[in-house]
Amino acid sequence: MDKFKKLREEREAHKRKLQEMLDKAETEERALTDAESEEFDQLEAKIKGIDRTIKAEERARGLSLNVISNEKREELQAEERAAAEERAFEDYIRGVVSEERADVNLTKGDNGAVIPSSIANKIIEKVEDICPIYQMAEHYNVGGTLSIPYYDETDGAIEMAYATEFEDLISTSGKFKSIELKGFLAGVLTKISKSLINNSHFNITNYVINKMAKAIVRWIEKECLNGTKDKIDGISKAKQVVTAAAADKITGDELIELQETIPDVYQPGCIWIMNKATRTAIRKLKDNDGNYLLNKDMTAKWGYTLLGAPVYCSDQVSKMAAGATTIIYGDMTGLAVKISEDMNIEVLREKFATQHAVGAVGWLEMDAKIQDEQKIAVLKMKASTQSGT
């Protein structure tokens, strides 16, 4: 695959050079000079030579595919298709006429093109890499409204009791309830400077993937942690709540109480989630023996542990303030996240032409709710602005 990639990159560089020569002559309203025509012919010959080499390689690979497993064949074909889709995507942004296979060409619209699924998948993979809350949550990738059943023993539970012969047993049980995950539409827009696009050494594909992924991460993390009224609930309606005695500080006992809210069976998967300012304040807390409660730990996911569990910092969590939800503790599989199976992303070449830019817009439908109340607990600051009594 490395040889194929190198050949194709070389081919695209030659194509861009040809296009630059033609654009320059058109701008200056003249024909190609003799030197330019000679260079044009040389570049064209190189492109044709590379095309012959690639086709020969593909024929040889086709012969090889006959003697390998179906699984490996499908894997190689998927890799080739993804590489072809990425080239088609970059060519479209740069305005280069692509000669790729018809089955990987972008779907054109009135104002742009829908980008290949391989690019959209890479954006989602990047989101999972940099957003642990989304990555650790329970995922449901389906369209429409999803109903998740659960067993609730709040008002009663199945119990065993002593019995007397010939007397009926008393029936006790919980109830089956459900939570509904809908789909709330959200969009993200990234604009790419044409100055960057015209730089042949700039990796447009990675730029779009990273920019869109970071914007999506900020939004998804905010909604999962805080929710929005009448939209996504996220963790905002957690029923297991510990309230601090003060509006501006947290004690070690309150942290222990919050941790103990979660049953022991779920403790191995638990993490702390807080603002960095809150972590700074907790770093100063000590136990009765003078030992710090929060410690640096090179083996922990994010470099710190608090009472044995890793600590993740997010700017989306409120700082210590009156009535604010300041700390989340729990096993994030207790959070259900539903994203529609297909993420729709389009490239808009004409819309931002007057800004000397090209746009990439992404749409997704998402919902998130707590699906297991036992797994997640939150600490809220005292509502009063005065310190605890």
Tell me what you see in this structure:
Helix content is 37%, strand content 22%. It is of the alpha+beta class.
Fraction in helix: 25-40%
Report the sheet with the most strands, covering strand number, pairing sense and barrel closure: 7 strands, mixed
Quote the average pLDDT: 80
Radius of gyration: 29 Å
Name the overall outline.
elongated
Helix segment count?
9
Structure summarized in a few sentences:
The protein is of the alpha+beta class and 389 residues long.
Helix/strand layout:
Layout: H1 2-27, H2 34-65, H3 70-94, E1 107-108, E2 112-114, H4 117-130, H5 132-136, E3 138-140, E4 146-152, E5 175-181, E6 184-193, H6 194-197, H7 204-225, E7 241-243, H8 252-260, E8 270-274, H9 276-282, E9 294-296, E10 304-306, E11 309-313, E12 325-331, E13 335-339, E14 344-348, E15 357-370, E16 376-380
Parallel strand pairs: 3-13, 7-16, 8-11
Antiparallel strand pairs: 1-2, 2-14, 4-5, 6-15, 8-12, 9-10, 10-11, 12-16, 13-15, 14-15
Helix pairs in contact: 1-2, 4-7
Keywords for this entry:
389 residues, 9 helices, alpha+beta, 7-stranded mixed sheet
